[in-house]
Amino acid sequence: MKKRVVIAGFGDTGLLVAINLGKDFEIVGISPKPCLVSGQELGMRLTQPQAWKKDYLMPFSRYKHLHGVRTLQGLITAIDPNERTATVQLQDGSKQVEHYDALVISSGVTNGFWRNNALESVASINRQTDRASQKLLQAQSIAIIGGGATGASVAGNLAERYREKSVHFFFSEQQPLPGYHPKVRNSVERHLLSAGVNLYPNHRAVIPDGFQCDRFTTEPIAFSGGQDRFTADITLWAVGKMSPNNDFIPSDMLNDTGFVKADAFLRVDGYENVFTVGDIAASDRHRSSARNWGYRLLGHNIRAYLSTKNIRMKRYESPPYRWGSVFGVQNDGLRVFQPQGSSFRFPRWTIHTLLFPLAVRKMIYKGIYKA
Fold first, then answer.
1. Is the dihedral of CA 55, 61, 64, 69 positive or negative?
2. CATH number (domain holding residue 143)
3. What residues pair up with 337 in beta bridges, in sequence order?
4. Can you give the residue range of the structural domain that contains 222?
5. Looking at the predicted structure, is the pLDDT value of residue 308 above 80?
6. I want to staple 346 with a disulfide (CB 3.0 to 4.6 A). Which of 98, 221, 273, 334 is the partner?
7. For 291, which DSSP code?
8. Total number of domains in the chain
9. At which of 240, 266, 299 does a domain end?
10. Which residues contact residue 97 at a Cβ distance below 8 angstroms, ignoring those fewer than 6 apart?
11. Residue 371: its pLDDT value, please?
């Protein structure tokens, strides 16, 4: 009889864990969404929503290696480590108990309107994606608050595609992209300036009381450093005010900030059969196991735990700096920044002839059926 692996959170990372576990296990994936709604490339999602949907909004049924995986749309309400069960509240309000031999906590975070833990239909996801894009594109002057990759992505994509718009990018440090290599920060800063983005370093915006940064605003922006208030037609808040989706997780599994405590093997501290990966996992100071092939290593370690063979677990090692694509696909292709500060570019012609069909869909996702 196959061992059962329950994956609590079926976003970018949880889905890849399931794909890499293969058909040796009975896998149950639990998600509040009926499909993959990627948290990647917000700049593309807002400026090119139809192009974004083709690669980042995908029915689970299109992934070849999810054949045989049982997916449940619902919210996990409780984990019982002693009974090895996860309780799921389904869309109709009924509850279902899933037993596991190994549990993966990959429930991610809520961060703005683009990453949430709400039960949604495909139709509502499409409507909200299109509505957010239209609101932003109808504005003439746009303010983006927050100097991370999300804010830089939105600012850069807006300025590149809509030269007539006035794009204003506010961040609290001297340069955008804290946590990235200094060379990457310099490169991204130059790109934003060349695209015509107005940069405002050392501007820490005051978040209004009770505001969750989960919608656009139009009110004047105040700054804690005493700089003059700024008013734009519309303001996007990308300040990293993320909340871990942890309501169902026992408190002893969480650290002081609400993220899941992870050991060197991406197991939850104190639980040999509970693993964690992705933005919810406190694997390192950047919580970087959502990248860096964390899903692949976790697949190996789950296999090692559940196997009767003498397979040794592997340690997760994080790079010193964040890395990856910042702006997504641009007119000149896709640039990927490395942890050591260098970068390489996939030319535009390779994106839909080689990169996505071969490197992404065939190699990473191990095959995707045509729509």
1. positive
2. 3.50.50.60
3. 324, 343
4. 133-240
5. no
6. 334
7. S
8. 2
9. 240
10. 85, 86, 87, 88
11. 81
What tokens were used for 62? 């299109």
Q: Report the C-alpha gap between 33 and 91 in whole angstroms.
A: 10
Residue 112: predicted pLDDT: 86
Q: Which of 138-142, 176-180, 288-292 has the lowest mean pLDDT?
A: 288-292
* Residue 371 CB burial class (10 angstroms; 0-12, 13-18, ≥19): exposed
Distance CA 344, CA 234 (A): 34
Q: What's the rounded Cα separation, in Å, for the pair 48 and 50?
A: 6
Instruction: State whether 223 and 109 are in the same domain.
Output: no
Whether 23 and 87 share a structural domain: yes
What are the tokens at 172? 């609290």
Say if 337 falls within a structural domain: no
CA distance linking residue 130 with residue 127, whole number of Å = 5
Q: What is the mean pLDDT of the chain?
A: 95
Q: Quick: pLDDT tens for 193-214.
A: 999 999 999 999 999 988 989 9
Helix axes 294-306, 12-21, angle to 10 degrees: 40
Q: List residues bridging with 74 in a β-sheet.
A: 90
Q: Is 199 helix (H, G, I), strand (E, B) or coil?
A: strand
Residue 310's pLDDT band (boundaries 50, 70, 90)?
Answer: confident
Answering whether pTM is above 0.85, one says yes
Burial tier of 343 (Cβ tally within 10 Å: 0-12, 13-18, 19+)? middle
